[in-house]
Automatic annotation (TrEMBL):
Source organism of the structure: Frankia canadensis
Coiled-coil region list: none
Full protein name: Transposase
All residue ranges annotated as the Transposase IS701-like DDE domain in the record: 33-239
Family matches, as InterPro entries: IS701-like, IS701-like_DDE_dom, RNaseH-like_sf
Phylogenetic lineage: Bacteria, Bacillati, Actinomycetota, Actinomycetes, Frankiales
Positions of transmembrane segments: none
Entry-linked Pfam families: DDE_5 (PF13546)
């Protein structure tokens, strides 16, 4: 007999809480070897669960309370001092994503995201433009590499951008634990390093894409071409293009094209239907690199607004192929949004180099687990009238069905209330003491 409790699983065959929990334990089990002590292995599992738990606020305090620990000290030590094989764990993230989502036609997508911060001592922070806020703010900025295939997409790697102001300040670097041998690298240089690391590790892929920050960098374009990776990289309208008629601005080429040069093609499906634009392709000259090189132009069919891309591929490909790759660039925006909302990528409250890298690495692993789980669920057809499971819905179902948390005992809740209020009282007293000292000096 089918009960009411059984009914949801009966009508949603793609929902498999037991299988999801088994898959999570399988991922955690392969990560165990990267931690020196059993306590760290257990805490790694609790940390990953906490990142995905949908807590209103995520930091070492709330993670420790969610995990049933008596204080935040263990979580803080785990991030800052515990013995990890950080590079090995990063390789595990890459291998896990490729094993589940790997495809020879995959697209590497790079982009940066910023986390607004207060103060001046958090590693990498300075006043700089961040797309997250849409303006110049006091922020950290990091470059991320997304791996996108028809099956799904997830982060492969990341790199913290260290501004020149930090690189020129040894005392500040030392206080934040920045490695002594670290040198300044631009965002395109960081992207180049990330994609070359992936290619050297044997990650399959055919294309790369990114916004103007990356498309305007000739060294990145040259590296991708020499690695025989096709690319569709956005460039500014003032970007200089070499043609048979000489060097011209991209916008000047666009406005002189005849009507017959344009083709209406979808850049992919969106929430409200196909993303239709008019597209044109112009061959470029003056390249000292192998392969086919073009300027790809996109025109909005409603506003007439233009967008421009430098393209390359080792062999000739149709215009529609370049358009498809251009449309895939938005996958990284999806990953930023979902990893921040569902895996607390941006909620770290840490100041030092090691802690920042460990937090974001664990958040990328949690997000990759959600992305892979969602991709696997798509192998099972949904019931009539339902859209396929989304990453957001999978996370919700996992924390409700596969990883439910028992209600904590009253004594535990009260102990944490006491801990928080004691810490806040000490912080308040410290602020008052500093304020009084400053007034005496004045």
């Amino acid at each position: 007999m089918t009960t009411r409790e059984d009914q949801p699983v009966a009508v949603c065959p793609s929902v498999d809480p037991d299988g999801w929990l088994e898959a999570f334990e399988g991922l955690a089990g392969r990560l165990d070897r990267r931690f020196a002590r059993p306590e760290s292995r257990r805490r790694m599992r609790r940390f990953l669960r906490g990142l995905m738990a949908g807590l209103p606020r995520v930091n070492c305090w709330t993670l420790a309370e969610y995990a049933g620990e008596a204080s935040p000290g263990g979580m803080q030590h785990f991030l800052a001092e515990a013995v990890w094989d950080d590079d090995g764990l990063r390789a595990d993230l890459r291998d896990y994503v490729v094993e589940r989502l790997g495809d020879p036609e995959a697209v590497f997508v790079f982009d940066e995201t910023g986390d607004v911060k207060k103060g001046s001592m958090t590693v990498g922070v300075q006043r700089q433009y961040t797309g997250t806020a849409g303006r110049i703010e006091n922020a950290q900025v990091a470059v991320y590499l997304t791996y996108a295939t028809p099956t799904g997409h997830a982060f492969l790697d990341n790199a913290l951008y260290m501004p020149r102001s930090w690189m020129a300040d040894p005392e500040r670097r030392r206080a934040a634990g920045v490695p002594d041998d670290l040198t300044f690298q631009t965002k395109p240089a960081l992207a180049r390093r990330l994609v070359e690391t992936a290619l050297d590790a044997g990650v399959p892929g055919r294309w790369a894409t990114g916004d103007e920050v990356y498309g305007n960098d000739p060294a990145l374009r040259a590296t991708l071409a020499r690695r025989e990776l096709g690319y569709v990289l956005a460039v500014a309208k003032t970007h200089q293009i070499d043609t048979k008629a000489g060097r011209r601005k991209a916008i000047d080429l666009a406005v002189t094209l005849p009507a017959t040069a344009w083709n209406r093609i979808s850049a992919g499906s969106g929430a409200k239907g196909q993303r239709l634009y008019d597209w044109a392709l112009i061959a470029t000259t003056g390249q000292d690199l192998p392969g086919q090189h073009h300027l790809l132009i996109r025109r909005n069919i409603t506003t007439g607004e233009y967008a421009f891309y430098r393209t390359h591929h080792p062999t000739p490909v149709p215009l529609a192929t370049y358009v498809r790759v251009a449309g895939i660039r938005w996958n990284v925006e999806d990953d930023f949004q979902s990893s921040k909302e569902l895996a607390a990528l941006d909620e770290h409250q840490v100041r030092r180099w090691t802690s920042w890298h460990r937090w974001t690495l664990l958040a990328m692993l949690a997000h990759a687990f959600l992305a892979v789980t969602t991709a696997r669920a798509h192998d099972t057809e949904p019931a009539d009238g339902l859209i396929p499971l989304t990453v957001n819905e999978v996370r919700h179902l996992i924390i409700q069905l596969a990883m439910p948390r028992p209600a904590p005992a009253a004594g535990f809740v009260l102990a944490w209330s006491w801990w928080r209020r004691r810490h806040q009282a000490r912080a308040q007293a410290s602020h008052y003491h500093r304020q009084a000292a400053a007034l005496q000096l004045n």
